[in-house]
Amino acid sequence: MSSPKSAPEMRDRIPCFRCGTCCIAPDISTLRKPVGVPCAHLRDDRLCGIYPDRPPVCRDYRPDDLCLALQALPPDERVPYYLAYYGMTDEAPAS
Ligand code: SF4
Ligand code: SF4
Question: Is the CB of 14 under 6 A from ligand 2?
């Protein structure tokens, strides 16, 4: 009998939709990126401009259930949703 899949294995089954939200919403100290500000390396097409050389914090990021929820939203609502989900709305610059 095969064992049930562990949580990490299930998590890895969620694809990245390349929406770029996680490159805008959270602060990333390694990149000196504040909350709610696009990473300097994020391209206009929402892809990473230094993908082969992105830092470990980006390499280790894994899509999760939040990514699924984000894709159901209009693009301009994704960053606000991400910030609210993690209680960071007050840390973001006023829009
Ligand atoms: S928020 Fe999720 S789906 Fe969007 S780019 Fe980041 S990992 Fe991919
Ligand atoms: S370095 Fe690339 S993957 Fe990391 S936050 Fe910036 S654009 Fe996103």
Answer: no
* Cα separation, 39 vs 79, whole angstroms: 13
On whether residue 1 sits in a domain, the answer given is no
pLDDT in tens, 34-48: 999 999 999 999 999
Predicted TM-score (pTM) above 0.90: no
Distance of CA 86 to the CA centre of its chain: 12
Dist. CA 12–CA 16, nearest whole Å: 10
Q: Which domain holds residue 72?
A: 8-88
Q: What is the 3-state secondary structure (H, E, C) of 4-64?
A: CCCHHHHHCCCCCCCCCHHHCCCCEHHHCECCCCCCCCECCCCCECCHHHCCHHHHCCCCC
In short, whether 48's Cβ falls inside 6 Å of ligand 1 is no
Structurally, the chain folds into a number of domains equal to 1
Residue 34 CA to ligand 2 center (angstroms) comes to: 13
